[in-house]
Design brief:
heterodimer; A: about 260 residues; TIM Barrel; two-stranded antiparallel ribbon; 11 strands; about 35% helix; B: about 850 residues; alpha/beta; 6-stranded mixed beta sheet; 3-stranded mixed beta sheet; 35 helices
Chain lengths: ~260, ~850
């Protein structure tokens, strides 16, 4: 076995038949651990690197599993017939995959070398050298840009955004991957028209970037906060309406000329 | 590249179609007595004649006098009943159930029918004649007593053909379209002329051919009645447009089906008379139009090329046929109605696929078939799509658009499995390439096959119960003894006992089916059907007597997933991990895991104990019975039994289940399926054909599950068993691709009578072009792995729950139940719940 197949890492889920995170039918591997603490996060169990216990439907469930690239690839391989027919493949998500850079890199490399399409959902919140080591193995980078205002970004996610915005530029300039900008549309944080158009304009300024996804806020992660004994700070926030999302999409297109879609 | 260039552009629906649909569904369907009265009159008058002639004369008599009607705005005419969606009855097959259900048929939960007092009176009167003369009575007298006992104990049910006609056939529609019934009469006369009065087969053959001629003439005369009625109505019609339509109808009915069709409109009308009249001759369902897009295409193409037809009008005519397919109906007994719920006649119509040379023949009509189903949004026809590596992508996308409507149509079939599977059953490659689907999922070569595709349902869970009881059921030794289950030392010994119970009960099933088969041949040969199935005319005998080129009997096994999970759980927990003893397992099953016994089991046990006491000379009065009853109930619910049951259920929960893409479990399931499919292959039917297994239960997994005790997979007593080859409801937790991978691990080739794999999707999984693309990719990927069939429910759970609460608002809600689509609100509550509980796929 190649050495990189033995690289160890920590995941908290593998989700098959995912059709909203990259092209075709995909398998998403969720890596545990994140640098940010977004208030709206729908995977709060992803944030801590530590293995945790979460109550799910009244029963305790261990969240987090130490595994190897080889073991993960056994699961990823199971849906190869579907990747072949749909142009799908492996997507890394999290957490922030870049928190486990060797593991992320070797997972992507293992897939890529076997002819499986690769994608990664990430905020790009890591030193650029880390990202650079991953890019040769990555077909599509689904990069979050949540806000262009550093202060507001820090207030809602726990970190400022300079590094991420700068990385976005570098990734785009590398020309090594298909960069798609994703914006979680969160009421009260970034859902004003001017906030979205500002992100859209920034995205349009990135070399080679053609597409942007507006992902409407949803509350499906709410129960997990209870399960982790945490308070959900966004209880009173309602998801944006379809009409409102369409308005934002139109505004984003007008401001940037990007191919913009609602949802992944 | 296919044979045809096609125009796939959508065609809008006309207002007429909406009104025809509304008219059809305005009222509860009704049972009419005309056919029963007429056939009885005829039978009384022909008692001394050969059966085949009596059948033909009865058919003639019915067609001559049965009331006819042209419904408002119809373009294609021919109705079996005056009431829309009404049904006639068929006392020659069975009648007692109907008479005993007269008072409940209107209020029952599955498929209610209105019946007038007059009709009840008529039927009571004619039923007197049929005592001792039906196919079901003859079949019973032919059956081995042990087979009857196995039926009584719900090991299997051959109910479908036991009480009804066989149906389940696709005829040579193309032959009637080409030469008309006059052409067939000529063929029969020519065959008759070749016969010599001294030939060994002359006696039977000459009468069969004579019966064919009588039947064909009757069909021609029936169409003339419609011509006359149309002319009469045209005479009094004030609307110029409708008047012209009626005159055109009259013209059509004068020409077809007597002669070959001269154009597409006539071909449509001719097709319809064939389809309708087959169902007046016999009560069989699943009379399947088959490859409509192929045999209709020459007429469409010629008219279009010559400027005699617009695509729009062709579409409207097809839509009219689609509506008419829902005008035919059938009343089943209450128990069968649960098993075939949804007023379904399973008239399977299939589009796309290859020709006999292996070239794709998707054409304009293939797309227009999909369009027609989108226009009418009704359960009939049971619409299917053939998929192979050469299927046009656009065709599958259009089909996926129909799936997305949530109507549960179409079902998708894999040429790459079905063609070699049929070749392995003796069809030529050219014939196998032209297959179509009968009823739910059963492949056959049209016009050459008597497939007996729905011969029985065999409950694979029951033989396992017999392993635990050493062949005893409800206190009676109904099967072979395979030894004391507690004393079985190895899993192999235990599994072997299961196989022995399977083999024995499969042989009983064969006996029951063959008895019924012979009864149909003797009492209900069908000359009208037989004249358009090869090689009946040349052989001079009906399909029931072995006239078809290919003869099969296809009984369905169901509960594969339950048995795979059950046997695997026993293997792991009892023999490998030794976490539970067989005695403990047995007790848990007997006590329904401590979850309480159902009333039927309690009363059975009480009777057994009371009889034992009586036999021992003890007095058993009402007080004693009450005491036993109470004791039996309490004994199964002691805290200890409840705790043991709970503990075992937790252990079972941890054992891996079929449907989750686990290689070892899936390989095991494949082997378990062979315990049904392999033994069957060795049996022969009276028509000279072989048995071939199917693996699907229609919707019988609910009512037949209700006759099944607790199983070792943790399934509680009386709850539904798994449907088709799908994983047990809720046990597949890794999504649609994992479930599909598991199911594809079964051997779909050997189940040549069809397998059925259901998946349910939330509509969001199919949203946008991307959703359609991924959906098609999912089907293709399952088929790459040699799955045979796939079908989908695309409807939200919320919608279904709301439909249960407000059925009146969901009169038109169609869901895919098993091999067919049905109106959700007409299904029984338990079947509705089963559909809702199926794992909702698609995140």
């Amino acid at each position: 076995m190649m050495d990189y197949m033995k690289t160890r890492g920590r995941i908290f889920d593998i989700q098959r038949f995912s059709i909203h995170d990259g092209t075709g039918i995909r398998t998403i591997v969720f890596l545990k651990g994140c640098v940010l603490r977004c208030r709206w996060c729908c995977n709060p169990e992803s944030q801590e690197y530590a293995i945790q216990t979460m109550m799910v439907q009244g029963k305790p469930k261990i969240i987090g599993e130490d595994t190897t690239v080889g073991k993960v690839m056994e699961v990823v391989e199971k849906d190869r017939p579907y990747y072949r027919r749909s142009g799908g493949g492996l997507t890394l998500s999290g957490g922030e995959s870049l928190c486990q850079p060797e593991f992320a890199r070797d997972l992507l490399r293992a897939a890529k070398e076997r002819g499986i399409n690769t994608a990664m959902e990430s905020m790009g919140c890591a030193p650029y050298e880390v990202i650079e080591s991953i890019l040769p193995h990555l077909d599509q980078y689904l990069m979050d840009i949540k806000h262009t205002n550093p202060g507001k970004h820090k207030e809602f996610t726990g970190r400022s955004n300079e590094l991420m915005l700068e990385n976005a530029k570098k990734i785009a300039d590398s020309g090594m991957t298909d960069l798609v900008i994703r914006v979680p549309v969160i009421p009260g944080f970034n859902d004003r028209k001017d906030e979205i158009t500002s992100i859209a304009r920034y995205a349009a300024g990135l070399r080679g970037v053609k597409r942007m996804h507006l992902l409407p806020y949803h509350r499906l992660g709410q129960d997990k906060y209870d399960g982790l004994g945490r308070e959900y700070l966004m209880k009173d926030i309602l998801p944006p309406s379809n009409d409102y999302m369409r308005m934002l999409k139109k505004a984003a297109i007008e401001a940037s000329g990007l191919d913009c879609q609602i949802g992944g | 590249m296919g044979l045809y260039t096609y125009n796939s552009e959508s065609i809008p629906k006309t207002d007429r179609i909406g009104r025809l649909v509304d008219h059809l569904f305005a009222k509860m369907p009704e049972i009419e007595s005309a056919r029963a009265v007429l056939i009885t009159e005829s039978y009384k008058a022909t008692e001394s004649e050969p059966m085949i002639i009596r059948r033909a004369k009865a058919f003639e008599h019915i067609l001559k006098y049965i009331p006819i009607i042209i419904r408002d705005e119809e373009l294609i005419v021919g109705s079996t009943t005056i009431a829309p969606r009404g049904c006639q009855t068929y006392p020659e097959f069975s009648y007692e159930w109907l008479e005993s259900e007269f008072e409940t048929v209107e209020t029952r939960s599955a498929d209610p029918f209105y019946i007038s007092e007059k009709a009840k009176q008529d039927l009571r009167e004619v039923h007197k004649y049929w005592k001792g003369k039906t196919t079901s009575e003859l079949a019973t007298s032919y059956m081995a007593p042990e087979a009857i006992r196995a039926i009584d104990h719900n090991i299997f049910t051959p109910g479908n053909y036991f009480y009804n006609g066989v149906g389940h056939v696709t005829v040579q529609y193309e032959k009637v379209l080409a030469v008309g019934y006059e052409g067939i009469i000529e063929e029969a006369e020519a065959e008759l002329a070749k016969c010599n009065v001294g030939d060994g087969d002359y006696v039977k053959k000459s009468h069969f051919l004579e019966a064919v001629i009588i039947s064909c003439k009757a069909a021609v005369a029936y169409a003339r009645r419609y011509a006359e009625l149309a002319e009469e109505e045209a005479g009094t019609c004030g609307n110029t447009q409708r008047k012209a339509e009626l005159l055109r109808i009259a013209e059509n009915c004068r020409r077809v089906p007597a002669k070959g069709a001269s154009g597409f409109y006539e071909a449509c009308q001719s097709f319809w008379f064939v389809q309708q009249l087959l169902q007046i001759e016999s009560s069989g369902h699943s009379i399947s139009p088959g490859r409509f897009d192929q045999y209709m295409y020459p007429y469409y193409k010629k008219d279009l090329d010559e400027g005699r037809l617009t695509r729009e009008f062709a579409q409207e005519l097809m839509d009219c046929i689609w509506v008419k397919l829902n005008d035919l109906n059938k009343c089943r007994d209450a128990a069968s109605a649960e098993g075939f719920a949804g007023y379904s006649l399973f008239q399977n119509l299939i589009a796309g696929g290859q020709n006999k040379e292996g070239i794709d023949v998707t054409n304009d009509l293939s797309f227009m078939c999909i369009q027609a189903s989108m226009h009418v949004m009704l359960p009939q026809p049971s619409f299917s799509i053939r998929v192979w590596n050469g299927s046009p992508h656009e065709f599958l996308i259009k089909a996926a658009e129909l799936t997305r409507t949530g109507i549960g149509l179409p079902a998708y079939y894999n040429d790459e499995v079905i063609i070699p599977s049929l070749v392995s059953r003796g069809l030529t490659l050219a014939e196998a390439r032209e297959y179509n689907i009968i009823g739910c999922v059963e492949p056959q070569k049209a016009g050459k096959t008597e497939g007996w595709h729905d011969a029985a349902f065999f409950n694979m869970c029951r033989p396992l119960e017999l392993v635990f009881s050493n062949g005893v059921d409800r206190g009676e030794q109904i099967s072979i003894k395979t030894g004391n289950v507690e004393e079985m030392k190895t899993f192999e010994e235990f599994y072997d006992a299961y196989k022995k119970q399977m083999n024995y009960n499969i042989s009983l099933l064969v006996n029951a089916d063959n008895a019924i088969d012979v009864a149909h041949a003797e009492r209900c040969p069908l000359p009208f059907l037989s004249c358009i199935v090869e090689d009946c005319i040349r052989r001079g005998k009906s399909v029931q007597e072995g006239g078809a080129v290919y003869n099969f009997t296809g009984p369905q096994g169901f509960g594969v997933a339950n048995m795979a999970d059950s046997l695997y759980a026993v293997k792991k927990l009892v023999y490998e991990e030794r976490k539970v003893s067989m005695a403990e397992y047995k007790e848990a099953l007997l006590t329904n895991y401590g979850k309480g016994l159902d009333p039927a089991t309690i009363s059975d046990l009480t009777v057994q104990i009371a009889e034992q006491l009586k036999a021992a000379g003890k007095p058993v009065g009402e007080a004693e019975i009450a005491a036993i009853l109470k004791a039996v109930k309490a004994a199964a619910e002691t805290p200890e039994i409840q705790a043991n049951g709970e503990k075992l259920l937790e252990l079972i929960e941890e054992v891996p289940k079929f449907g989750n893409d686990i290689a070892e479990v899936d390989a095991f399931a494949r082997d378990v399926a062979y315990t049904y499919t392999r033994p069957l292959e060795s049996f022969k039917n009276p028509r000279g054909g072989m048995y071939q297994a199917g693996l699907y239960p229609v919707s019988a997994n609910v009512p037949l599950g209700a006759q099944t005790g607790a199983t070792p997979d943790g399934r509680l007593a009386r709850t539904p068993v798994a449907d088709g080859v799908s994983p047990s409801a809720g046990k597949d937790v890794h999504g649609p691709t994992a479930a599909a991978n598991s199911v594809s691990k079964l051997d779909h080739y050997i189940a040549s009578n069809g397998t059925l794999f259901n998946q349910k999707f939330h509509p969001s999984a199919l949203s946008g072009r991307k959703g359609l693309e991924n959906f098609v990719a999912l089907i293709r990927s399952y088929f790459d792995q040699k799955g045979s069939h796939m079908q989908f429910n695309v409807v939200s759970r919320e919608t279904l729950l709301d439909a249960q609460k407000h059925p009146e608002q969901y009169k038109h809600l169609v869901v895919r139940v098993a091999g067919y689509s049905a109106l959700f609100t007409t299904l029984s509550r338990s079947l509705q719940d089963d559909i809702i509980n199926r794992t909702e796929q698609g995140f």
